[in-house]
């Protein structure tokens, strides 16, 4: 297998989402992954497949978390587990696919940022004058293979579609692989449990990505279409910001951008990428 740098590095051994399962067809669909042209779909028996077009070879595939995953190299591990998805009262909400003209690490970093809530998601995830990001904790878990932010709290006027009013929301952020990130947040109807919002980012090229948001919610009332629209509204607000950031690739060198106390998770994510040797979509 011949690959050009910088794609020939650690991200080749990672599992990447390339499609919601609901989008699979018997007629192959074209997409890009790490600068490679691939096709995917399912056969007449319903079995999913993915192929590297240039090399005319089949790729490993798995159906997990409502999506189709593949790997361009030799998988070094399994797809990140989300144990809560097995709970029978959780709804799986596939929020579609959104193309963004920026790198995959930029999208992940934006997902981890609470400071922009009052200014980008005004009167939904935040509002002035409640703009302070309280100090939170950073942890490495799973032998350093995951980075977490815990004890995050933020006042939100409408934390979820099911929220009847503003609440103090607790967040847990989890980066499970370079382009897979999850948010565990207070469920408005059952505050002792967390709703889970995942963002699976497909790195098409160095500076173009597809975002696959999937939610696992405790909400048996809201119409599916309304839940999807709520999440898409938030992400499309983010896309405007993301596509105007320069450089499009995420800088990993220290001092390239000046962080604040609210950016501790961003700093941890960049350091974690650098320590893992991830170069794709960065200026490392």
TrEMBL record:
Keywords assigned: Dioxygenase, Oxidoreductase
Pfam short name (any one): VanA_C
InterPro entries xref list: Cholesterol_7-desaturase (IPR050584), VanA_C_cat (IPR044043)
Keyword Oxidoreductase in annotation: yes
GO molecular function: dioxygenase activity
Start and end residues of each Vanillate O-demethylase oxygenase-like C-terminal catalytic domain: 101-274
Signal peptide: none
Protein name: Aromatic ring-hydroxylating dioxygenase subunit alpha
């Amino acid at each position: 297998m011949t690959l050009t740098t910088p794609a020939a590095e650690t991200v080749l051994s990672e599992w990447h989402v390339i499609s919601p399962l609901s989008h699979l067809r018997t007629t192959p669909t074209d997409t890009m992954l790490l600068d490679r042209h691939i096709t995917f779909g399912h056969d007449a028996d319903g079995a999913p497949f993915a192929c590297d077009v240039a090399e005319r070879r089949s790729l490993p595939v798995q159906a997990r978390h409502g999506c189709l995953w593949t790997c361009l190299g030799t998988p070094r591990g399994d797809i990140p587990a989300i144990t809560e998805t097995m709970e029978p009262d959780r709804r799986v909400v596939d929020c579609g696919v959104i193309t963004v003209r920026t790198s995959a690490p930029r999208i992940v970093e934006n997902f981890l940022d609470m400071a922009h809530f009052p200014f980008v998601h005004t009167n939904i995830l935040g509002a002035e004058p409640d703009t302070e990001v309280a100090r939170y904790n950073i942890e490495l878990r799973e032998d350093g293979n995951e980075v977490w932010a815990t004890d995050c709290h933020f006042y939100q006027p409408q934390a979820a579609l099911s929220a009847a009013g503003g609440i103090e929301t607790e967040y847990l952020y989890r980066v499970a692989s370079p382009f897979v990130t999850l948010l565990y947040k207070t469920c408005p109807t059952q505050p002792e449990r967390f709703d889970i919002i995942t963002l699976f980012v497909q790195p098409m090229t160095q500076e173009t990505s597809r975002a696959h948001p999937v939610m696992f919610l405790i909400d048996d009332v809201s119409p599916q279409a309304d839940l999807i629209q709520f999440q898409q509204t938030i992400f499309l607000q983010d896309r405007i910001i993301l596509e105007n950031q320069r450089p499009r690739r995420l800088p990993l060198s220290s001092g390239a951008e000046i962080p604040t106390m609210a950016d501790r998770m961003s700093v941890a994510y960049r350091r974690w990428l650098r320590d893992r040797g991830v170069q794709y979509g960065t200026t490392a």
